[in-house]
Structure formats: structure tokens, C-alpha cells
Design brief:
Structural class: mainly beta
Oligomer: single chain
Strand content: over 45%
Shape: globular
Strand order of the largest sheet: 1-2-3-4-5-6-7-8-9-10-11-12
Number of helices: 2
Order of helices and strands: HEEEEEEEEEEEEH
Helix content: under 10%
């Protein structure tokens, strides 16, 4: 409860400082289904997922967005089910969005289950008719493994047309096991989405590259690829979603690097000796 109040207070302060321009959030959202592959120095991970988002206004410029998803991650050794949920509170006008989020990631595999909690501060800035620049700072914690994660990421979206979006992401984060061992994660990614003009159906996909480096000098590379389909409601176009709809990323989208749906469902798959952190 204290965390929710802190997020709400931060959003209110940012909204007052940012000026009075008004742009109403429209009640809208989407559901999607996706397949992803995580290629690591060890076994590859196949990930199937379904999820959805819905946004709604709660005032002239205030809005709320709720995300939920289920993923199944399968490699040569285990089968993991991941449930995620994120709630965003934000202030949006015709020039920008400022907000915060809290969320939970619940993972259950063949050997154990674990819960990760998190929070984030989020921003988007609408540059002209076709470009959006944004950034996010996020924190995740897993008490089961005594692990904390801190990260920042930035993204740039460009709308070739109202229904064709391309996006680039870059981010950095660090995983601390609170015992002196840190793991740094760097990454860059790109994604695209195209929506049909006749029906609210879109196809999306993307690729991300990450480097994982611990303080013992061990380093590994990770490639993540994802494709999927998405059905929208209450929105007229992909650009309308960005400016008035459910445009924010869930907390399980680690560093903003996983293409569109948070396809990275387990840092444990590619961080040596890190037993959890389902993200």
C-alpha cells in the first residue's frame, strides 16, 4: 500500500510540473498470442504466451492501464509457467505521458516456484505526428532468492503510417544477490508491428541482443526473437494506441528489450549461477 501511494504521489507531482495541456485516454486495449525463442550459451528456450492490456481514463488527464499475461518456457531441462500482472497509473496530455507502475511475476517450474515484485517510473514524449521517445526506470525484488534488480531503458517509436510501427530499445540493468555478486545486463533491440486496415488485427515481431556480465569476468550473449498476432478493441490505429490507449510496457518486459510482450521469461536460463528472477 505504501508503494502504491508513493507511485501515485510521484505521478501527481510530475503532472503538476508538466503543464495543463489535455488529451483524454480512451477506454481500449488488446489481446495477443506469441511465440519466442531465447538463444543462449546453454540450451535454447521456447516460449509460448498469451496476454492482454486495457487502458481507461480516471480523470481529465489521469489514466490507468492493467496488463496480464501467461507464458510457458520450455528448454531441455525444465518446463516453466509464468503469470504476470502490472498496474500503471499515469498522467497523459497531447505532448507527453508520465506515470508509474507496480507489478508481480509468479513463476512455477518442475522444481520450485517463486514470486518477484516490482515497480517502475515511466515516460513518453510525443515528438510531432509520427515519433515517440520514452524512458523507464525499474526495480524488481525476489525475496525467495534474496535478489534485487535495478534497470533503466529507453525507446524510440516511429510510425511509418498510422498502422505501421517500428521501434528501437536500449537498456542496462544490474542484478544484485545481496551477497556481493552482481550481474550486469546490457542490451539493444528492435521490433515492428503492422495492423490491417480492414480489421483490428496486427502482426508483430522483433529481435533483441543482450550481454550478461558478472563480476567474476564471465560473459554470455543472449539473442531473443519473437513473433505474434494481436487483436485490438476501442482503438482506431496503432498510433492512436500510442497516444490515447494501452501503450505502456509490463514489468515482465525486462529493460524494455524483449520484443513487445516480455518474451524473456527467465534470467535464470542465461545468467550463470543465478537461480531465479523470472523476467
Amino acid at each position: 500500500m505504501r508503494l502504491l501511494k508513493t507511485i501515485a504521489a510521484a505521478v501527481a507531482v510530475m503532472a503538476i510540473a508538466a503543464g495543463p495541456a489535455i488529451a483524454e485516454t480512451v477506454t481500449s486495449g488488446h489481446i495477443d498470442a506469441s511465440y519466442g525463442n531465447v538463444n543462449t550459451d546453454g540450451p535454447d528456450v521456447d516460449i509460448w504466451g498469451v496476454g492482454g492490456k486495457i487502458a481507461a481514463p480516471v480523470g481529465d488527464t489521469l489514466g490507468v492501464q492493467v496488463d496480464a499475461a501467461w507464458y510457458n518456457a520450455d528448454d531441455d531441462y525444465s518446463d516453466t509457467n509464468v503469470l504476470t500482472g502490472t498496474v500503471h497509473l499515469f498522467d497523459r496530455n497531447e505532448n507527453r505521458l508520465l506515470g508509474g507502475a507496480v507489478g508481480v511475476i509468479r513463476s512455477d517450474d518442475d522444481f520450485d516456484d517463486t514470486t518477484t515484485w516490482g515497480a517502475a517510473l515511466e515516460s513518453d514524449f510525443y515528438i510531432g505526428d509520427n515519433t515517440t521517445l520514452g524512458a523507464r526506470a525499474e526495480w524488481l525484488t525476489n525475496d525467495d532468492a534474496n535478489i534485487d534488480f535495478w534497470g533503466v531503458d529507453a525507446h524510440a517509436r516511429y510510425f511509418v503510417t498510422d498502422n505501421f510501427r517500428v521501434e528501437g530499445n536500449v537498456g542496462w540493468g544490474t542484478i544484485d544477490d545481496n551477497g556481493g555478486d552482481n550481474v550486469d545486463v546490457w542490451g539493444v533491440g528492435g521490433e515492428a508491428e503492422y495492423r490491417l486496415d480492414s480489421v483490428p488485427l496486427s502482426v508483430f515481431g522483433g529481435v533483441s541482443w543482450l550481454n550478461v556480465d558478472d563480476n567474476f569476468g564471465d560473459s554470455s550473449d543472449v539473442t531473443v526473437a519473437q513473433i505474434g498476432v494481436r487483436w485490438a478493441f476501442g482503438e482506431d490505429s496503432l498510433k492512436a494506441r500510442d497516444r490515447t490507449g494501452a501503450s505502456l510496457k509490463p514489468l515482465d518486459n525486462l529493460l524494455g528489450l524483449a520484443p513487445v510482450g516480455g518474451v524473456i521469461s527467465g534470467v535464470s536460463y542465461y545468467v550463470p549461477e543465478e537461480p531465479t528472477f523470472e523476467e
